[in-house]
Automatic annotation (TrEMBL):
Pfam families associated with the record: 2OG-FeII_Oxy
Domain Isopenicillin N synthase-like Fe(2+) 2OG dioxygenase: 95-154
InterPro entries: IPNS-like_FE2OG_OXY, IPNS-like_sf, Iron_ascorbate_oxido_reductase
Signal sequence annotation: none
SUPFAM superfamilies, A to Z: Clavaminate synthase-like
Domain of life: Eukaryota
Name used for this protein in its record: Molybdopterin cofactor sulfurase
Length: 204
């Protein structure tokens, strides 16, 4: 019998407390997507509302040559602005949207490229210098697609805080020290609302 997610607490307990995760939710034979995972109609994807953003892919092969520093600078600039970049020589998912300054920006697929997003922990470690990108992937009725996301995260007991050398340079810590598992409990314990989960880690 499929579990019943009739409130936020029951969904949180199943996904986070009991350790089933999103995959366990899918495998539980539920007949509809839990309400917490559904965007309000006004925020749902509409390709016509997305601004197209042309971004040149970064060639990682040049890291081993005389253009090493320029490649590094390209990655840094992308992480500081969009929180997103593409590197060539890999497969790329199609129809990706990134959120930038309250507006969805369409990222056209680059053949042979790999999509890399900056996540919340890197934004905290960098004291806000690198931007954690909010993104979404559109589905269509004309194409099939396979996405294989790989998330790199600390252990649950790991303490997370801006790096001391970054705080010294900035003159202020924009995020407090916290335990990674506490952050994830906050993240999964609330309905998705953009990047508001980062507010849990802010110092004010």
């Amino acid at each position: 019998m499929a579990p019943c997610f009739d409130n936020q607490s029951s969904l949180f307990n199943f996904v986070v407390r009991d350790g089933n995760g999103v995959k366990g939710t899918v495998d539980s034979s539920i007949s509809k997507v839990p309400w917490a995972y559904i965007q309000p109609p006004a925020e749902q994807i509409n390709k016509n509302n997305a601004t197209k953003c042309e971004i040149l892919p970064i060639d990682l092969l040049s890291l081993d040559g005389p253009d090493h520093d320029e490649v590094v600078n390209q990655i840094v600039r992308a992480a500081e602005t969009l929180g997103f970049f593409q590197v060539i020589n890999r497969g790329v998912p199609e129809d990706v949207d990134m959120e930038k300054k309250g507006e969805w920006v369409e990222i056209p697929p680059v053949p042979g490229a790999l999509v890399i997003n900056v996540g919340d922990m890197l934004q905290i470690w960098s004291n806000g210098r690198y931007k954690s990108a909010e993104y979404r992937v559109r589905t269509t009725s004309t194409k099939s697609r396979v996405s294989i996301p790989i998330f790199v995260s600390p252990q649950g007991t790991q303490k997370i805080a801006p790096l001391p050398q970054v705080v010294e340079k900035d003159g202020v810590a924009r995020y407090r020290e916290l335990v990674f598992s506490d952050y994830m409990n906050c993240f999964f314990g609330n309905a998705h609302d953009g990047k508001k989960s980062l507010g849990f880690a802010k110092t004010n």
